[in-house]
């Protein structure tokens, strides 16, 4: 059984296209937010109730975040542990540093925290989004991952927003680096009080070999293996070596 979530909401085209395709291969359960929760990262609801509306036996609308959806499904409602968690298809890329902001990636990360192989899936490009093409591509992506991995793992997948037959292939990549443009816009409301918009221009990226960005710009699917441990081991080793040398 595959457990699905997203951050665009249960009525999004992306999750509908993906579950339509994947229901041909496996049993599915969908626990997705009742409204859009984009860029909410790995927030969980600790100080307010999370409500669930049963749409049908396979679809559940949840008042919380993507991480809430997976937590609730795995620990509270499903009678067995899913074989896999899939989050997406997101309307827009989650490349490079986006993984720290993304609710889509967080939904998959929550599954991996519970020891379940988990995949976040995003459509890299601008509207109109080709969700049907991306969903058609996903079984190939999944088979590529499953053929190489035997233990629970966590992957971030980005599919170029182009026709299915124009996709060149599938590349394993490392996480690139974003350049976020824009700034803070200050305005005055009708009550003469200040408010702010976290304005953002179109982000760019550092052009580096082997990154998720490079894969997408060459019309390839990007598969990036992620982990939960964010320790900077290079710095840790340097500090440890210095400390040991002073003993």
Biggest sheet architecture: 9 strands, mixed
CATH superfamily grouping: Survival protein SurE-like phosphatase/nucleotidase
How would you write the strand order of the largest sheet?
Answer: 3-4-2-1-5-6-7-13-8
Question: What percent of residues adopt helix (DSSP H or I)?
Answer: 25-40%
Question: Order of SSEs, N→C?
Answer: EHEEEHEHEHEEEEEEHEH
Question: Your description of this structure?
Answer:
The protein is of the alpha/beta class and 247 residues long. Helices cover 28% and strands 27% of the residues. It contains 6 helices and 13 strands. It has helices at 13-22, 66-77, 103-113, 131-148, 212-217, 233-245; strands spanning 2-5, 28-33, 52-56, 59-62, 84-91, 117-124, 154-160, 169-172, 178-179, 184-188, 194-198, 204-205, 220-226. The strands form 3 sheets. A 9-stranded mixed sheet has the order 3-4-2-1-5-6-7-13-8, with helices on both faces. A two-stranded antiparallel ribbon has the order 9-12.
Could you give a short description of this structure?
This protein has 247 residues and is of the alpha/beta class.
């Amino acid at each position: 059984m595959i457990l699905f979530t997203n951050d665009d909401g249960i009525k999004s085209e992306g999750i509908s296209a993906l579950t339509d395709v994947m229901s041909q291969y496996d049993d599915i359960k969908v626990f997705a937010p009742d409204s859009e929760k984009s860029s909410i990262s790995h927030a969980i609801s600790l100080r307010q109730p999370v409500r669930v509306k049963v749409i049908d036996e396979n679809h559940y609308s949840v008042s919380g975040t993507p991480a809430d959806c997976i937590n609730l499904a795995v620990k509270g409602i499903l009678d067995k542990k899913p074989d896999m968690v899939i989050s997406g298809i997101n309307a827009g890329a989650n490349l490079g540093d986006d993984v720290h902001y993304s609710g889509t990636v967080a939904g998959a990360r929550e599954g991996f925290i519970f020891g379940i192989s988990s995949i976040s899936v995003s459509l890299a490009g601008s509207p109109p989004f080709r969700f049907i093409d991306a969903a058609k591509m996903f079984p190939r992506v999944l088979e590529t991952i499953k053929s190489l991995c035997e233990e629970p793992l966590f992957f971030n997948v980005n599919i170029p927003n182009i026709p299915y037959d124009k996709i060149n292939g599938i590349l394993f990549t490392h996480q690139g680096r974003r350049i976020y443009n824009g700034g803070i816009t200050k305005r005055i409301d009708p009550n003469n009080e200040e408010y702010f918009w976290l304005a953002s221009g179109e982000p760019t990226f550092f052009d580096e070999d082997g990154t998720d960005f490079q894969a997408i710009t060459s019309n390839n699917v990007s598969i990036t293996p992620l982990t939960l441990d964010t320790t900077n081991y290079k710095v840790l080793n340097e500090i440890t070596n210095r400390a040991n040398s002073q003993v």
